[in-house]
Amino acid sequence: MMILGTRAEVRDLLNPSSKAALKVREHPTLGPYVENLSKCAVQNFDDIEHLMDEGTKVRSAPRKRRSCGERSSWIALDLSRYHLARS
């Protein structure tokens, strides 16, 4: 995800066709999360690196200049580990 400027507008870098800003929510037990953020299954670091490269390409794409306070952006990566039992 990318957080844009002073308005804290959150965008999904793995779903660039979505133009709507995502909403940050608070789960009572798990804490803050981003609603409707893309989830991708990976098996190794190469998979993670590929997704990070794809997100960087979207972030680096030219975009219209905004007002001075909104040129900066931040990127965050959310990793969760799940163990799937084999039957």
Notes on the structure:
By secondary structure, the chain is an alpha+beta fold. It has one domain (2-75). Helix content is 18%, strand content 20%. The protein has a three-stranded antiparallel β-sheet with strand order 2-1-5, with no helix packed on it. Strands 3-4 form a two-stranded antiparallel sheet. The longest helix has 16 residues, at 45-60. The N and C termini lie far apart (34 Å).
Brief account:
The chain has 87 residues and is α+β, with helices and mostly antiparallel strands.
User: Beta-sheet strand percentage?
Assistant: 15-25%
Q: Span from first to last CA?
A: 34 Å
Identify the strand order in the major beta sheet: 2-1-5
- Uncertain runs are 65-69
Count of separate DSSP helical elements: 1
Averaged pLDDT: 79
Q: Whole-number radius of gyration?
A: 15 Å
Which SSEs are present, and which pair or pack?
Layout lengths: L1 E3 L4 E3 L12 E4 L3 E4 L10 H16 L12 E3 L12
Antiparallel strand pairs: 1-2, 1-5, 3-4
How would you describe this structure in keywords?
87 residues, alpha+beta, 3-stranded antiparallel sheet, two-stranded antiparallel ribbon, 1 helix, 5 strands, 18% helix
